[in-house]
Amino acid sequence: MAETYRGVAFPWLCDQQGHLTTSQYMLMFDVASYHLMDLLTRGIGDDPALSWADVRHEIDYRAEVPAGALVVIDSMIEAMGTSSLRAVHEMRSTDGAVVHARMLAVSVRFDKAARRSAPLSPALRERAAALLPVVEPTA
């Protein structure tokens, strides 16, 4: 996992009950996604003709984020396809004691000119593999 976001649930980002609004969860997860993609593509000769297309978001809200709370989002790659990545972003309290929400995001590498998916480059696949969960062998 890699830390991809750190922020504050400012009161003006909260609803009438004093909890972070759902739109702000999505904003924070979106920022985390940008940082994750930067970690994967920075400095590897990324092709400017390629981009990312988000095709799925699924959020599980687990514990409300009260106004004034400090949050951190850690991200990892859960799976890789030929042209897609499935990432998991976990929002929690900065001490790690509370998991506030988890988002599953599927993003497809996208050729902007051809308007279709493009395969992940070997360098990008290598970086993404470093963020896959470590599975311990069973006896």
Which features does this protein show?
single chain, alpha+beta, six-stranded antiparallel sheet, 6 strands, 40% strand, globular
Strand/helix succession: EHEEEEEH
- SSE-based structural type: alpha+beta
Biggest sheet descriptor:
6 strands, antiparallel
Whole-number mean pLDDT: 93
Tally the beta strands: 6
Low-confidence stretches: none
The coarse silhouette is globular
Instruction: Classify the beta-strand content into a percent band.
Output: 35-45%
What is the terminal-to-terminal distance? 25 Å
Radius of gyration: 16 Å
Show the helix and strand layout.
Elements: E1 2-8, H1 22-41, E2 50-61, E3 70-80, E4 84-93, E5 99-111, E6 116-117, H2 122-129
Antiparallel strand pairs: 1-3, 2-5, 3-4, 4-5, 5-6
Structure description:
The longest helix has 20 residues, at about 20-40. This protein has helices at about 20-40, 120-130, and strands spanning about 1-10, 50-60, 70-80, 85-95, 100-110, 115. Strand 4 and strand 5 (about 100-110) form a beta hairpin. The chain has 2 helices and 6 strands, in the order βαβββββα.
Put the structure in a nutshell:
By secondary structure, the protein is an alpha+beta fold. The protein has helices at residues 22-41, 122-129, and strands at residues 2-8, 50-61, 70-80, 84-93, 99-111, 116-117.
